[in-house]
Amino acid sequence: MNTLEPLPADFYGYADLLDDTDKKILARVREFAEEKIAPVADDHWARAEFPYELIPGFAELDIVGLDRDWPDRPAHSRLLTSFIRMELSRVDPSMATFFAVQAGLALSSIDLCGSDEQKERWLPAMRRMEKIGAFALTEPHGGSDVAGGLETTARREGDEWVIDGAKRWIGNGTFADLVVVWARDAADDQVKGFVVEKGMPGFTARKMEGKLALRTVQNADLTFDGVRVPAANRLPGARTFADTNRVLRVSRGGVVWGAVGAMAAVYELARDYATTRIQFGSPIASYQLVQDHLVSILGNATASLGMAVRVAQLQDAGTFRNEQAALAKRQATLMLRDSVARAREVFGGNGILLENKVGRFFNDAEALYSYEGTKEINTLVVGRAVTGIGAFVGRARQKP
């Protein structure tokens, strides 16, 4: 594929903001997604198994860490890396999430918080996808409140740190070669970052079963039972939760693009179905109520894409703020929920058949809606920014 054809859901042509070099890279990603990922996506989703055979293809694309400078490759724009997330999610949000953990959360943690020696030790192998990364923050008892309620602990003993605790919902966790683990330092009660490598004694990973969304993603329950981590594996730039939040701020903007990609997918699926499905002697696309669904999905996708593009531009400019990430994530995933429901309705009963794909996106939307900050938490982040008043802590009713 030498040219980048416009996507039907890119109604205003936002991809034209990319230069010709970036468009060629994006065209290669689209080709890989459509020719390699799409044929196996439904089967692996149904079996909740990961297509490990696709990893060499990802590596060949050489798209990990595109937004940072390497000795042999200058940094590309955040706009390009964001469009890549959209293209992957348009075919399979599970594989887009796998890639986002590798190229986003895991790699960014080391890039933003690691020493020069740590970056040299791990990042080139992650770029080549010879080492797969994971990001371990969420815990069995801590989701939205993890900043203040982190239970996993680390204590210094000589030239080692000893980590105890548990993590949950860790994408790539079952097979990751290295896991960025966030733990509370027993000495100063501050959150710090560590790289735990596969095979370290006391570290175990167990696949979570029974998921109804992003089933291909291998989420894991991780346990740390006196895991001894060399001091050289502590990320020196991760000293408090504020440093953790630097990583989350970047990744939260990426979820917006995942939502846009999923909306682009269900728009195409619903439009194509509506123009070929005959009922009462006519394509159902000829009926006003069906057209309302299609235009509403397109409107959601277009509005979200416009917001997502501006997010990427602000990231490139270095002026991106937490509340901007929060608003974009909140709105895009709300509109994604509406869009997948409308697309499912266009398909009628056929929408629950996996072969028609829309049901897979319907389920996957629930994960995108929840992870990287719930609607409620992101609402409060924006609410604090616009009012100057924090409303995170509920107050118990006073008895008369």
From TrEMBL:
Pfam families on file: Acyl-CoA_dh_1 (PF00441), Acyl-CoA_dh_M (PF02770), Acyl-CoA_dh_N (PF02771)
Sequence similarity: Belongs to the acyl-CoA dehydrogenase family.
Cofactor: FAD
Family annotation (SUPFAM superfamilies): Acyl-CoA dehydrogenase C-terminal domain-like, Acyl-CoA dehydrogenase NM domain-like
Keywords: FAD, Flavoprotein, Oxidoreductase
Domain Acyl-CoA oxidase/dehydrogenase middle, first and last residues per copy: 134-227
Native source species: Pseudonocardia alaniniphila
Record's protein name: Acyl-CoA dehydrogenase family protein
Domain of life of the source: Bacteria
Residue stretches making up the Acyl-CoA dehydrogenase/oxidase N-terminal domain: 20-130
Residue span, Acyl-CoA dehydrogenase/oxidase C-terminal domain: 245-386
InterPro entries: ACX4-like, Acyl-CoA_DH_CS, Acyl-CoA_Oxase/DH_mid-dom, Acyl-CoA_Oxase/DH_mid-dom_sf, AcylCo_DH-like_C, AcylCo_DH/oxidase_C, AcylCoA_DH/ox_N, AcylCoA_DH/ox_N_sf
Key word Oxidoreductase present: yes
